[in-house]
């Protein structure tokens, strides 16, 4: 019974947050993505960190302007590819040919270097101010975070619209909270 209730709660929170996100006007989405990019300096990333971005699907916020700002500041970029047992990340260079990477996204093809990111920009359905998040229910990021974070420091930054915030996200002991969340209205620091 205890497993059922958090999952049911997560499902209802996910559905409501995605509905709010889906109701945003196209012009508001574009403006929000540009506002997020303006917060690039506030992220305070280590010099030269390899940053895993994501290719937006459906009506997600578009992290590509933020990723462009990170590249201009000397950060390497990569994109996730759905694989087993967890996501892998391929280096994103200018002019790289992009191919289907699973879950409706694209990434550099198999000829691109596979890298291990220092920072993950994490897409999400909903979040709270303590850094807990609700994904899309497939566990792709959870498995990658556990695998990479077991061997090295890994910084997690959620990227979302402000309307995706909820009061509290149910979580389990193994769930790793985000270090920060960047929205069009603010940078929320969740962990010291």
Automatic annotation (TrEMBL):
Reactions listed under catalytic activity: (6S)-5-formyl-5,6,7,8-tetrahydrofolate + ATP = (6R)-5,10-methenyltetrahydrofolate + ADP + phosphate
UniProt-listed Enzyme Commission number(s): 6.3.3.2
Gene3D superfamilies reported in the protein's UniProt record: NagB/RpiA/CoA transferase-like
Binding site for ATP: 10-14, 133-141
The organism's taxonomic lineage, starting at the top: Bacteria, Pseudomonadati, Pseudomonadota, Alphaproteobacteria, Hyphomicrobiales
Residues reported to bind substrate: 60
Pfam family, one: 5-FTHF_cyc-lig
Record flagged with keyword Cytoplasm: no
A single BP term in Gene Ontology: tetrahydrofolate interconversion
The protein's required cofactors: Mg(2+)
UniProt protein name: 5-formyltetrahydrofolate cyclo-ligase
Keyword annotations: ATP-binding, Ligase, Magnesium, Metal-binding, Nucleotide-binding
A GO term, aspect molecular function: 5-formyltetrahydrofolate cyclo-ligase activity
Cross-referenced SUPFAM superfamilies: NagB/RpiA/CoA transferase-like
Organism of origin: Breoghania corrubedonensis
Enzyme class: ligase
Family the entry assigns: Belongs to the 5-formyltetrahydrofolate cyclo-ligase family.
């Amino acid at each position: 019974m205890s497993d059922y209730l958090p999952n049911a709660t997560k499902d209802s929170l996910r559905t409501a947050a995605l509905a709010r996100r889906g109701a945003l006007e196209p012009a508001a989405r574009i403006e929000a993505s540009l506002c997020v990019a303006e917060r690039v300096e506030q992220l305070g990333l280590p010099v030269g960190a390899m940053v895993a971005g994501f290719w937006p699907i459906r009506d997600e916020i578009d992290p590509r302007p933020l990723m462009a700002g990170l590249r201009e500041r000397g950060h390497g970029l990569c994109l996730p590819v759905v694989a087993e047992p967890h996501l892998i990340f391929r280096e994103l260079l200018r002019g790289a040919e992009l191919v289907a990477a699973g879950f409706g996204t694209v990434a550099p093809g198999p000829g691109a270097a596979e890298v291990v990111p220092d920072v993950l920009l994490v897409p999400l359905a909903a979040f709270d101010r303590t850094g807990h998040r609700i994904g899309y229910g497939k566990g792709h990021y959870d498995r990658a975070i556990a695998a990479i974070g077991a061997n090295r420091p890994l910084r997690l930054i959620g990227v979302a619209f402000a309307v995706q915030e909820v009061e509290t996200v149910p979580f389990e002991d193994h769930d790793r909270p985000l270090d920060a969340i960047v929205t069009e209205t603010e940078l929320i620091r969740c962990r010291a």
